[in-house]
Amino acid sequence: MTAALPDVSLSDLSADPAALDWVGMQGIDLPITLNETGQRQTVHACADLQVDLPRPEVKGIHMSRLYTLLDRLGQDRALAPTVLQALLQAMVESHADCGSRNARLVLQFSLLCRRPALVTPQLSGWKAYPVKLEATLVEGRFRARVELTVSYSSTCPCSAALSRQLLVSAYDKAFAGRQRLDPVAVSQWLGRNGSLATPHSQRSEAKVAVDLQAAEESLGLLALIDQIEQALATPVQTAVKRADEQAFAALNGANLMFVEDAARRLGAALSAAGAQHAAVHVRHIESLHPHDAVASVGAHP
User: Fold this and answer.
1) What is the mean pLDDT of the segment spanning 255-259?
2) 285 exposed, middle or buried (CB, 10 Å; 0-12, 13-18, 19+)?
3) What is the CATH number of the domain that holds 267?
4) What average pLDDT does the segment 43-52 reach?
5) Which residues are CB-neighbours of 125 under 8 A, at least 6 positions away?
6) Backbone angles phi, psi at 122, to 5 degrees
7) Would the pTM of this model clear 0.85, i.e. be above it?
8) Separation CA 36–CA 48 (nearest Å)
9) In a domain, 68, yes or no
10) Is 76 helix (H, G, I), strand (E, B) or coil?
11) 111 to each of 33, 38, 81, 114, 149, how far by Cα in Å?
12) Beta carbons of 81 and 144 less than 8 angstroms apart
């Protein structure tokens, strides 16, 4: 085509002049490159990106410019705060004719990690950790914040105490009046009756959000995941044999926790690690109730 194509975003003025906080696109699919497990990993991400439109008379921004900039993300370098800041700056500069000063990007994806079994040598499996990453450049100030979701198991302390009480009552009844107890008989009784009552436990999830350092060359996702799982002590497992399942049961027994305990554990661990503006939200997907138990600590400033 030899004739110039019309561009109404430039030639027309807004019929209802007004500045807009954010304008852009949502739900863009793209591959991004991560380097969080010692190896480069390409994952599928979903992106939202916008710039502000402070000039009230401008009819519209240039969506294709934003898309083109986003499409280059992670092609040459693994995703990092420095890479995000450069992209946001380029987004603002690409819309100088619109007066844009601010930009933001939200990425959602899952980090896929291979995690070892608890005790069985060389047994492992894949686990996906959902990630939400938000980066903003507002009035020249860059900020990047990551939210991770980690699944774990939680066993109710109250249910455990009630189960122990039933076991003690049954034991007292079975051996009432005996002056001397045969250890073998006691061991056999426990083998038959130790599960007379079992405490309820459930799959649970922790959402942890922290600010990232602008100068970092990595997102530090795996290190944060390790902090979370070590604090909770009962992360869900992938491939297991019976020995691993038994070890997992022992971990749950040694780490009884209400939803309040889980939130406090994580808050303390993140504080000790020096996490910036940490926020925690935990959810126990109850097996006793048709509703969930939740707790939060830390505010988003």
Assistant:
1) 97
2) middle
3) 3.10.270.10
4) 96
5) 114, 115, 117, 237, 238, 239
6) 60, 15
7) yes
8) 22
9) yes
10) coil
11) 10, 13, 17, 10, 10
12) yes
Encode 19-44: b = buried (16+ Cβ within 10 Å), e = exposed. Answer: ebeebbeeebebebbbbbeeeeeebe
pLDDT score for 9? 67
Pair of tokens at residue 197: 């009552």
In a domain, 247, yes or no: yes
118: containing domain: 19-156+200-297
At residue 178 the predicted structure's pLDDT band, cuts being 50, 70 and 90, is confident
- 228-252 per-residue burial string, b: 16 or more CB within 10 A, e: under 16: bbebbebbebbebeeebeebbeebb
DSSP bridge pairs for 109: 131
Tokens of 72: 């280059």
Cross-strand pairs, 127: 113
126: tokens are 């894949």
Instruction: Tell me if 283 is assigned to some domain.
Output: yes
pLDDT, residue 18, reads: 87
Residue 301: what pLDDT? Answer: 46
171, part of any domain: no
Number of domains in the chain: 1
What one-letter code names the amino acid at 55? R
Rounded to a whole number of angstroms, the CA Rg of the chain reads: 27
Measured from the Cβ of residue 1, the count of other Cβ atoms closer than 10 Å reads 4
